[in-house]
Each structure stands twice: as structure tokens, then as C-alpha cells.
Amino acid sequence: MRTLIAGVIPHAGVGHTYPLAQSTSPLVPALYANLCAFVLDYVARQKMAGTHLTYGYFTQLPVLPPGSYDKDCPWDSNQRLDNWITSRVLELSYTTYDMTAFAADHGDKGPPFRWNEQRRFQLRAELDAAYFHLYGLPRDDVNYVMDTFRAFRHNGPDRFTRTKNAILETYDAMADALHTGEPYRTVLNPPPGHGPRHPPHATR
After folding, report:
1. Confidence of residue 203 (pLDDT cuts 50, 70, 90)
2. Residues 13, 16, 17, 19: what is their CA dihedral angle, to the nearest 10 degrees?
3. N or C: where does the chain have the smaller number of CB atoms within 10 Å of the terminal CB?
């Protein structure tokens, strides 16, 4: 259903068809979110002729440059854009103690987040809507891009419809925030980055 499948993994060996991007940049969560976005997956699908995302394809992907994140969040000027993205990425990716070092590198010293499917669904919708805005796609194009994911639509029509609608609703809410200057308000309570966590490991 997806062409570009990215992941953050602990230090480990991987096969030759798993391109690695290693960095100590504080913008790694933003890069990860960018690679997971539907908008970039759409572009990857236009470029790939095979079944493996090799380095040749990877280097052609139009990921946003680091400078794109060095500003206030367009739909919530009370936050920096990189912080807005990082809080959501950490709650999505930091769900096991194996990822403690990654979380700590990006300012999270707490225990891992619990896997909460409802929260994860909304977090992903917010990130996808955000990247559609960051790439400058108007709403009609967002609708078109989502409809090109035919395998997703055919294999899981109910989930596809729910996903698409959530992204469009969030996109619209962000567009309203951009127009009015009133900050976008997530529907999540507690807000992203403050979701339920596992209990801390017992110390010996």
C-alpha cells in the first residue's frame, strides 16, 4: 500500500536493500516525518521502477531542506515548527525501551509511550496534513494525491476513507489557522508528546 517505508531503528545491522541515513542532527525526527508522509510517498511512486528503494532513488526524493524547519510553526506561531513535529514523532516512534537513546537525543528523558491506536491515528493525520501544507499543495491536490493510493483504498476501504477524511479535516483546520492567525488546536488530550507512558524501569 506504500512505496516508501521509513523507520527509526536502534543501532543494528541491516541488509543491503535497507538504505541507512545516519545523523546526529536535531532535525532527524523532522526528516523521519517527511519520509513517512503521504505526499513524499506519492513522489517516490512516480520514480521507482522496481520493488527496492535503492540509494539512487533515495537521493532523488524531494525532502524538505533543513532550513524549512528553522521558523515558527505556520499554523501555530506559539511553537517552533521543528518542536511541533518532534513531539508527534517521538510519541509515534518511542514506544519501546530500545528507542531510549533516540528519544533522549531529542529531549525526551521519560519512559516510552504506550501504543494507543486512536492517538497514533490522529498524530499521523496531523503530520500528513502538515506536510501537505509544507509542500504547498492546495486542498484539491491533497484529495487527488490521497486517491492515487489505490491499493490502500481497495484493500482497506473503510480505513482508507477514515484516514483520508482525518487528513483533510486536519488540513482544513490548519488552513483556517493560517488564514485567521488563530493557532491550530489538536483534538488530542493530553496534547502530542504528553500521551500515556509505560511505567519507568525499576532501578536495581
Report:
1. low
2. 60
3. C
Q: What is the value of pTM for the model shown?
A: 0.94
Task: Reduce the DSSP state of residue 77 to 3 states and report it.
Answer: strand
pLDDT for 204 beyond 50: no
Show me where the domains of the chain are located. 28-180
42 CB-near residues (< 8 Å, 6+ apart): 145, 148, 149
Question: What pLDDT score does 56 carry?
Answer: 82
Cell readout for 83 is 518542536
Residues with Cβ within 8 Å of residue 18, at least 6 apart in sequence: none
Residues 6+ apart with CB under 8 A from 116: 195, 196
| CA nearest neighbour of 173 among 204, 144, 202, 133 | 133
Give the bridge partners for 113, in sequence order.
Answer: 197
CA dist., res. 25 & res. 23, Å (int): 5
